[in-house]
Write a structure and sequence with these properties.
Elements (H helix, E strand, L loop, with lengths): L8 E5 L7 H11 L3 E6 L3 H8 L8 E3 L5 H15 L4 E4 L18 H22 L7 E7 L12 H19 L4 E8 L5 H4 L4 H5 L1 H5 L10 H11 L10 E4 L9
Helix pairs in contact: 1-9, 3-4, 4-5
Length: 255
């Protein structure tokens, strides 16, 4: 029986650790029949080590999404490996330490600007770098953390995720005519590399122990990875500009 991504070529960013949603996305994508290529920054060698744990070999390309030269050179490198693309996974987010952990009112614009550039504008940058390779349409899927609410300790990553969510809707609007869908998975908290950079992460994640209708495991990224793979597949052919929550249902619960 063939997988739901049989014959598809998918670029996955953000594979930093085996505990990352991006790693489980790449693993599931391969298991579902996709050819996968990875990008990494700032340490491609780290991603190459983690990539060895995937079911099949995957090439790792260095890609700083804030570097115009890296973005301009992406097409040639990916075409050499895969010939083109059917799917792109944006799993990229970063904020300087002074933009997190309760410093919201005092964070300087320089740090806010970095968070916005890396975490939100990069969805547009990456999409445009990959667009020439998606001549037959395809799917772009990003990862967010529900930006409808203000979270403890999350500070400027919240507005950055809100900008990411808006960017996804505008990409859906502008890329639809080329048969490209753009959607996001809004995942519950996962103990990943990104989580380790958030002071007070455990306090934030503890909310799920009390309010999530479905039990939530912060050490299990696979449910979110399954959501990403589903959106990459042809099973959502007319869904775009959407945010699918994979958070145990917490987003629907008021108190």
């Amino acid at each position: 029986m063939s997988g739901i991504l049989e014959g598809k070529r998918v670029l996955v960013t953000g594979v930093l650790m085996e505990s990352s949603i991006a790693f489980h996305t790449a693993k599931l994508a391969q298991e579902q029949g996709a050819e996968v290529i990875l990008t990494a920054f700032p340490r491609p060698t780290l991603t190459e080590r983690i990539a060895k744990k995937l079911p099949k070999p995957a090439k790792v390309l260095e890609l700083d999404v804030t570097n115009a030269e890296h973005l301009a050179g992406l097409e040639e490198k990916v075409r050499a490996e895969l010939g083109g693309l059917d799917g792109v996974v944006h799993s990229i987010g970063f904020a300087p330490q002074d933009a997190l952990g309760g410093n919201f009112l005092n964070t300087p614009w320089e740090s806010v600007g970095t968070a916005m550039h890396v975490s939100a504008f990069s969805l547009k940058s990456l999409s445009m770098a990959c667009l020439p390779m998606m001549s037959e349409g395809g799917a772009i899927v990003g990862l967010t953390f529900d930006a409808q609410l203000a979270w403890p300790q999350y500070d400027w990553m919240g507005p950055a995720k809100a900008a990411l969510e808006a960017t996804s809707r505008y990409l859906a609007r502008d890329l639809g005519k080329q048969g490209i869908r753009c959607n996001l998975i809004s995942a519950g908290p996962i103990k990943s590399m990104a989580a380790k950079s958030i002071p007070g992460f455990d306090q934030l994640a503890d909310t799920w122990n009390h309010r999530s209708p479905l039990s939530w495991d912060v050490t299990d990224p696979e449910p979110a990875g399954r959501g990403v793979v589903a959106l990459l597949s042809d099973w959502f052919p007319k869904t775009s500009g959407e945010i699918i929550h994979v958070d145990g249902g917490l987003h629907a619960i008021g108190a």
